[in-house]
TrEMBL record:
Residue ranges occupied by any HTH cro/C1-type domain in the UniProt entry: 6-60
Organism: bioreactor metagenome
Listed name of the protein: HTH cro/C1-type domain-containing protein
Any one GO molecular function term: DNA binding
InterPro entries, per database record: Cro/C1-type_HTH, Lambda_DNA-bd_dom_sf
Length: 70
């Protein structure tokens, strides 16, 4: 996962870790560990993150799999 890119998108959306954690229905500590790459997001969390940050499928693939869609 590309942690820096996820943080950048979160900040561009005007969200703190606290605000995004609330949208994802998890603690700030749990979100922080995921954003920093210590724990992986599960599929349900990725779907919620996609909605909260208004990401498209290409964004999700780039952030979580580190590659562009051909």
């Amino acid at each position: 996962m590309m942690s820096r890119e996820l943080k950048s998108i979160r900040v561009k959306n005007g969200l703190t870790q606290e605000a995004l954690a609330e949208k994802l229905e998890m603690s700030v500590t749990a979100y922080s560990k995921r954003e920093n790459g210590q724990i992986e997001f599960n599929v349900t969390e990725i779907k919620k993150l996609k909605d909260a940050l208004v990401l498209n499928d290409d964004d999700v693939i780039r952030i979580f799999f580190g590659s562009e869609v051909a």
